[in-house]
# Entry
Amino acid sequence: MREIAYDDLVKSVKAMVMHTASHLPEDALKAIEEAYENEKSEVAKSVLKQILDNAHLASEEDRPLCQDTGLAVYFVNVGEEVKVVGGSIRDAINQATEEAYKEGYLRASTCDCFDRHNLKDEVGYNLPAVIHFDIVPGDKIEIEYAAKGGGSENVSRATVLAPAQGKEGIKNFVKQVISDAGPNPCPPIIVGVGIGGTFEVAAKSSKHALFREAGTPNPNPDLDAFEKQLKEELNKLGIGAMGMGGTQTVLAVHIEKNPCHIASLPVSVNVQCHSSRHSHITL
Amino acid sequence: MAEYHMTTPLSDEDVSKLEAGDIVYLNGTIYTARDAAHKRLVDLIEKGEQLPFDLKGSVIYFVGPTPPKPGEPIGSAGPTTSYRMDSYSPILIEHGQKGMIGKGKRNEAVKEACKKHKAVYFGATGGAGALIAKAIKKAEVIAYPELGPEAIRKLEVEEFPVTVINDTHGNDLYEMGRAKYEVKD
# Structure
């Protein structure tokens, strides 16, 4: 059984979280640059320019890209032949999150869902982190991380369609969700679509779909074609950067599918704003 | 589309000449407030009590900044989504507020209040919090420090860049912009 020291895990995750807050990853930057080149509206183009200027400034001066530094969301694949010594993996990730958000001058945005008071003093600074664990073969720990903002979560939706509605029904649902969202989720956006599974599996898949690098093809050729079709359809909505009207609303559509019940076709749409702050490490 | 440089407080005359799509560079004092602070302001108005700042001609920025690094006035400070303020803004506009800065759609009641009482809704670029912070020269918490990032701050701004979304004539840039680029099958 391979061993990883608790403190090493904390150190690695903390460094990743701090870096991600101020450095837009290459894939997102490239996708926005392409949108800037292709945009027909002058107003939207000037917005995209501001977004790119902001990304360069944030990175150079190590400032948070956005004041909404998100909830810390992790997908963690733990190998069956590795264990963490000196504490639990969950504790290590929460500790790393808290230290990174505090020391990086990031905003604590986690609150009680009814009385809305910030939980920073009783649970911890921007805690608890949202952690999705899985057990996989091997002796490694893979951690995918995203700082997920509220504005784009607020427009995300899930439903269960009748199987007969098929791809056409999925397309219509996705289009409706993005059309209703309009300017609110800070377009240009990345659209994660989770299809199949059970209700919660579709939702989780739609979130995980957002972790794929924008611009990389879907390994499934059928889904890849569907993604391209959806992207084209969504860009016809004319929403544009920050909703001011334009041809570049969607940077990418990412789909994950799962086997589902013979009676159901669950579909979930999770929206990612242009500030697609994500990263991953393998230990 | 015109470009203006304006200094707060804003007058009826200032806001009446603005049209959806115009670019405005704001100077002077603006105030920050999100939903929790808005609720408290409206409660004070309903009780007939004094507000922590003068609403007349004021501009309110919907923002919850990141904590400032030592020696800096403010952290990253881009706009939050504005619909959460929709139930409060018409009351503040009725009592003299002239400008709102945020991102995203407003409801009919807000647009109607902008027409009736002469006020405008400005959009700032969401997710450009590092860049926008450069236009904020001073920041001071003047009310509700217990709300943390949601406290009311008095900001001194220079050439703070915004775009007019909803003007005093009933125009909406989001609807106009989308209508121009929407491709119907």
